[in-house]
Specification:
492 residues, 7% strand
């Protein structure tokens, strides 16, 4: 019997074995499950946030919490309301502060979990998160001369491309290039590194997009993970990606070791190497850790920025009155300047409301990044076992009619004069998460988005190349548009 057929017969028996010996407990409401695959058959793989929302409305606890328990096939708690989100991200934040072990992300960081996003909760994560917030993504660093110059230069390149293109332009591609350029220069300094960063991130995105039985089985049964990886071919693809990434990063690290810079000119790699050399990181900062942190930040910052810009421009094209109002605001502020600068962003109240409204309707990561319970915890009288995956449906929370008036309508005015913000204190609006595992790159992402959007609205008028605008969503942890956004720009 071939290895593939053997696995196809073996996996169902392992699932049945695991299910048979699992302990019964007082769990939250749950739909009926199948003995082998749990509730996997109920999920729409192309739109899991919408699918989970529908299941929560139908099977979740019949009150303001709507919590629901699923086997996917590992035990999973699904939270779809602000009330329940506050309970797990504030009241019981520590209990849910870890991340589930993941075959894909573990391999992505050379099997060690050495990054801020996916590390399990513990001393390493606490120290690396503190170091990232204080030394890499602090307000001072985000607005340093080096980072401001990177944003201005990459924006100038995008504006020049739009100015010379008289036909329809692929804005999705422009936004990705802009975001990738800003992030890669913040990380490694040199503009010439941007293309290679983009190539490598594209390679891993293609691998992670594969949704197969083998990946699920590898995560549920780590003991047979190596065999599954080999049969499916994913192991070889990850190894190739890691090889290319590590070689590229080795060149960057070697370049940075040879130069000396002052604090104002330091990029992320400079800061990491300096902390490693003088022992100020607070944890064992090896080259593997540096590579993992860089990889984590490259992917997270690029996706958040370009996906947000995609959906912002899409919604503005659907709502021309909002577009006109936003353009009037920035054109009044900037006057006759050739470009909007970061100093002009202080007065963009309406444009910031537009950005918030888009993040409410189209959060870059609709299900955030999954959490995992460290210990057993009681939620609404239910006992949630340790090692339970926690999925927080930020997309559903942003469209909850109990919180938001006309939740499916695009109304930036709802944020004018409102104290509701995305900084983790208002659980009805958590595009960056909340609590200990909240995204540390929020400030970096927001100024990059605001600067680009303000200039797009200031410098150009926009129209569709046709009569229809496709608003379908793509697939992934981060959810971009399904199809690229093509628009025609007219310089004013």
């Amino acid at each position: 019997m071939s290895p593939l057929l053997f696995l196809l017969f073996l996996i169902p028996f392992l699932l049945l074995f695991k299910s048979f010996f699992s302990k019964k407990s007082n769990l939250p409401p749950s739909p009926a499950s199948l003995p082998l695959i749990g509730h996997l058959h109920l999920l729409n793989s192309r739109s899991q946030h919408r699918s989970l929302h529908s299941l929560s409305l139908r099977y979740g606890r019949a009150d303001s919490s709507q919590i629901m328990f699923l086997n996917l096939p590992s035990p999973t708690l699904v939270v779809s309301t602000a009330t329940a989100a506050e309970l797990v991200l504030k009241t019981h934040d520590l209990a849910f502060a870890s991340r589930p072990a993941s075959f894909s992300e573990g391999t992505l960081v050379n099997g060690t979990g050495q990054n801020v996003s996916f590390s399990e909760y513990g001393d390493y994560w606490r120290q690396s998160k503190k170091f990232t917030v204080v030394h890499l993504l602090s307000q001072k660093r985000v607005f340093s001369a080096l980072f401001r110059a990177a944003r201005a230069d990459e924006l100038t390149k995008m504006m020049a491309h739009l100015s010379t293109n008289k036909g329809k332009v692929n804005l999705s591609d422009c936004f990705y290039a802009y975001a990738n350029g800003v992030v890669s220069r913040a990380i490694a300094g040199k503009e010439s590194n941007a293309d290679k960063f983009r190539e490598l991130m594209g390679d891993i995105s293609a691998v992670l997009a594969q949704r197969s039985l083998y990946r699920v089985a590898a995560e549920v049964f780590p003991a047979i993970g190596k065999l599954i990886n080999k049969v499916s071919g994913l192991n070889e693809k990850f190894e190739g990606y890691n090889r290319n990434w590590n070689q590229f990063m080795a060149e960057i690290l070697e370049e940075h070791k040879k130069k000396m810079v002052n604090t104002e000119e330091e990029d992320f790699v400079d800061v990491l190497l300096r902390a490693r050399n003088d022992g100020t990181a607070g944890f064992d900062l090896t080259e593997n850790e540096i590579i993992a942190i860089v990889r984590d930040m490259t992917a997270a910052a690029t996706d958040t920025t370009f996906i947000s810009l995609e959906w912002i421009m899409s919604e503005l094209m659907k709502n021309p009155d909002v577009m006109a109002k936003a353009q009037a605001e920035i054109r009044k502020i900037a006057g006759k300047k050739p470009m909007v600068t970061e100093d002009d962003l202080n007065g963009i109240e309406y444009i910031r409301a537009v950005i918030k409204e888009v993040m409410r309707l189209h959060p870059p990561a609709p299900l955030l990044v999954p959490h995992e319970s460290i210990t057993a915890v009681e939620i609404y009288g239910y006992k949630i076992p340790a090692k339970t995956k926690l999925i927080i449906n930020g997309w559903a929370i942003g469209r909850d009619p109990q919180i938001w008036e006309a939740p499916d309508e695009f109304r930036p005015e709802r944020f004018i004069g409102s104290e509701v913000d995305f900084r983790g204190n208002n659980f009805q609006f958590i595009p960056f998460g909340a609590g200990r595992r909240m995204c540390p790159g929020m400030n970096f992402a927001m100024v990059t988005i605001e600067l680009a959007l303000a200039n797009l609205l200031y410098r150009f008028d926009w129209r569709l190349p046709g009569t229809n605008l496709d608003m379908d969503e793509g697939v992934g942890i981060s959810v971009p548009r399904k199809t690229p956004l093509y628009l025609i720009a007219t310089e004013v």
